[in-house]
Design brief:
It contains 6 helices and 12 strands.
């Protein structure tokens, strides 16, 4: 059992939490963002003050591994690595998709015997997704898919599939039938990280602090209108 700091910055929401022995001690989340660069410092100060009051050393820092926003993840990972170096503790990297699936599994209104398909919106009709069973076992690793009404037809023909995460809005437009359930409001949050992080800590599954890089979803590239480009 461990004293853990959690940072989740993969989407527009910036969140941070502290847990001890799997129990949540502190959490902050801002849904007005993205304002990660502004918020991460004050949130971290609050969280580390909670850590100090425990009277024991911080055991590890857990952070989003993505997929997610380049800007958000870069800020979160930089902050997490900074704490790891300062406190000389290991880094735990958690998949954003696994976190979404685990958040749904621990919610009060789950569908019995369902498959869980976390989906994060990419561009156009593309999503980042993986597949989990109702026990949290990964049946299909993360991949990027261009989706249409046939993409998940085989799994939808056998049992209910719950699409969780912001990509569920895109999925809902495809007319996938009665076995498809959509929960776009399920968010990856730091306060939901302790169970997965605690398990990773107990199993010694740590990332390399120096070389760890999260899995980025490419942010939209801003284009400059031609009439704004100076002519020489």
């Amino acid at each position: 059992m461990a004293l853990l700091l959690h940072l989740e910055t993969s989407t527009r929401v910036c969140s941070i939490a502290v847990s001890r022995d799997g129990h949540l001690l502190f959490s902050r989340a801002d849904r007005e963002g993205p304002a990660h660069a502004t918020l991460i410092g004050p949130y971290l100060d609050e969280a580390l003050a909670v850590v100090e009051r425990q009277g024991v050393a911080l055991d590890a820092v857990a952070v989003s591994a993505g997929p997610g926003s380049y800007t958000g993840l870069r800020i979160g990972v930089s902050a997490a690595k900074g704490v790891c170096y300062a406190r000389q503790c290991p880094l735990i990297a958690l998949s954003t998709l696994e976190l979404l699936a685990d958040t749904y599994r621990h919610s009060p209104d789950t569908v019995n015997g369902c498959l869980i398909r976390p989906v994060l919106d990419a561009r156009r009709m593309e999503v980042y997704t993986a597949l989990y069973d109702s026990d949290g076992q990964c049946l299909e690793p993360m991949r990027a898919l261009v989706v249409d009404e046939t993409t998940f037809a085989s799994e939808l023909s056998t049992r209910p599939v719950v699409f969780v995460g912001n990509g569920a809005v895109k999925m809902e437009t495809l007319g996938l039938g009665d076995n498809a359930h959509f929960l776009p409001d399920v968010e990856p949050l730091a306060e939901h990280m302790p169970s997965l992080a605690e398990q990773a800590f107990m199993e010694g599954r740590f990332a390399d602090v120096a070389y760890f890089e999260p899995y980025y979803i490419k942010d939209f590239v801003a284009t400059v209108k031609k009439h704004l480009i100076p002519h020489h």
